[in-house]
Amino acid sequence: MVTELYGKWQDYLFLTREMKKFLFKRDLDLFLSLVEQRENLQVILEKLADDDYYASSEGKSLLLQVQQENQKMMAQFHMAFNSIKKQENVSQAYEGRLNVAGSFINDKT
Description:
By secondary structure, the protein is mainly alpha-helical. It has one domain (2-108): Methane Monooxygenase Hydroxylase, Chain G, domain 1 (Up-down Bundle). It contains four helices and no strands. Helix 1 (2-24) packs antiparallel against helix 2 and helix 1 runs parallel beside helix 4 (57-108). It starts with a helix and ends with a helix.
């Protein structure tokens, strides 16, 4: 069971790293697919929970890696979200200016 648990946590770590990579590439479809896969894996991990493994040096080390990668992924998520939000704000501002210009042109013609 410990080997299976270790393998599942390795898979979780891999998915977290991949999520970060696809956020960087702004591939949100693949990112969301990886989120779903990781959520499914999390359910399995909860069923396999083993306090002895988590207390071991191997378990602590692996969980620390997962935590660090998750923090990096979340930082990448915030950067991607802010970039998308900025693009959306610029687009809305541009549309607003076009509407004002269009109204002005319509009023003058």
